[in-house]
Amino acid sequence: MSVPVISIVQMREWEAATWATGQTEAEFIRRVGKRVARRAGPKSHLSPDAIRPKIMCSQV
User: Model-level pTM?
Assistant: First the structure.
């Protein structure tokens, strides 16, 4: 499976565009956490609710 690679500059531009739409970092992290949990759920013994992001927005 190929994995797209972006530069730090591209990532920061993408983040700035995302936050400009009104999306909050906390909501973004919550949504990503749910997707990761759904993907990992079938491959692990953990339920989607058991996997939660440990990063606080201020630490990013």
Answer: 0.48
